[in-house]
Design brief:
This protein is globular. It has six helices and two strands. The chain has a two-stranded antiparallel ribbon. The protein is mostly helical. The protein has one domain. Helices cover 70% and strands 4% of the residues.
């Protein structure tokens, strides 16, 4: 299923992604990938969610596909079409992307290809996706601010979900 999602994302990226200006979005792509890797490192022994898959051997391999296919395409489609001036349109645009990501997550969970752990739920995923898409835009415009906000957001989630630092490798 995750290969299918990656394939769909490649088609979407090919059709609507701003590949000609990929350098413009490169640092934000890396920001998203680093955020994903950081999640996987910090929560390795205390995950909030896990992907399951028959074709790929484990969660880590699935996350690699997401990091190197799904997330770059997401940035290349999301940022170039982001509304510039109207706050309402910006909010609707972000919520539309959140709805897409949550719909995919719901389908994966329904087919037992995605599972929640340690108090996480689809409701937390909604909040997380709102934060994530907002941070992508902030990073594109003001990278240092996005990194600073990310530190506080990571600390909040780690404290709220009791991610034990003593269990980290």
């Amino acid at each position: 299923m995750n290969f299918f999602i990656a394939g769909i994302m490649l088609i979407i990226g090919w059709k609507w992604g701003d590949w000609r200006n990929w350098e413009k979005y490169y640092s934000t792509i890396l920001f998203m990938i680093i955020g994903n890797f950081l999640y996987n490192i910090l929560t390795y022994n205390h995950p909030m969610w896990l992907y399951e898959e028959a074709l790929l051997p484990n969660h880590t391999m699935i996350e690699m596909v997401h990091s190197f296919v799904v997330f770059p395409v997401t940035v290349l489609v999301f940022l170039p079409r982001f509304p510039e001036n109207n706050l309402f349109k910006k909010m609707v645009y972000i919520l539309r992307w959140v709805a897409i990501f949550i719909s995919v997550e719901w389908i994966l969970a329904r087919f037992e290809l995605f599972s929640y752990h340690n108090g996480w739920s689809i409701y937390w995923s909604v909040l997380f996706n709102v934060i994530m898409f907002t941070l992508l835009r902030i990073h594109f415009k003001r990278p240092l601010l996005a990194w600073l906000l990310s530190v506080f957001i990571v600390l909040f989630f780690m404290i709220f979900f009791n991610v034990p630092i003593e269990k980290m490798r």
